[in-house]
Design a protein that fits this description.
By secondary structure, the protein is mainly beta. It contains no helices and 22 strands.
């Protein structure tokens, strides 16, 4: 299934709400699909499941994870999750280059778990606490900076969990950048 659009549907009381691909199939399929405004809840296993080589799918304004596990991305890449509300996302170690933009997390226990690489997050908001949330492993997780004498390096703690600053002399200026 490729280049399909699903608009304003619901999936409740199923084992899996939306599943792209199959756990044992390694072909590039289920690509370029768009899912808009769906309500997924009370599915027993998972609300959204993306297997291995499924890529370039867009999920826009979904409601997932009210009474069931929300989103699992198992090796899939280049997918976008834009807006909507979710009780969390779990990217496994094979997942990469996915984007989560403007999503609201449903509660204090709602998190984004990222064991993949180069997945990005922007404007993630927690409804219960009123705070912006970030991944447990934000990308880029390491920041390398080279600064000359009297130079300034800006470090964004929301995007870098480990920073290396190399200098050619001193003094240097180090500032922290708040995420807007």
């Amino acid at each position: 299934m490729s280049n399909c659009t699903f608009i304003n549907e619901t999936s409740e009381g199923n084992n899996i709400g939306i599943e792209f691909g199959h756990a044992t199939d390694i072909r590039n399929q289920s690509t370029g699909n768009t899912v808009i405004g769906m309500d997924l809840e009370v599915n027993t296993a998972i609300d959204i499941l993306l297997h291995k080589t499924k890529y370039a799918n867009n999920f826009i304004g979904l409601k997932v994870g009210y009474s069931s596990p929300a989103i699992q991305v198992q090796g899939s890449y280049a997918n976008s999750f834009i807006g909507g509300v979710s009780s969390g996302i779990d990217f496994n170690s094979l997942s990469h280059d996915n984007r989560v933009i403007g999503m609201s997390l449903l509660g204090n226990d709602s998190i984004i778990v990222d064991n993949g690489t180069r997945n990005t997050y922007e404007k993630i908001f927690n409804i219960s606490s009123g705070t912006q949330k970030e991944s447990t492993d934000p990308y880029p997780s390491r920041s390398n900076n080279t600064v000359s004498v009297n130079g300034t390096v800006q470090i964004n703690p929301f995007l870098s969990s480990y920073c290396v600053v190399s200098t050619t002399g001193s003094p240097i200026n180090v500032t922290s950048v708040a995420k807007n």
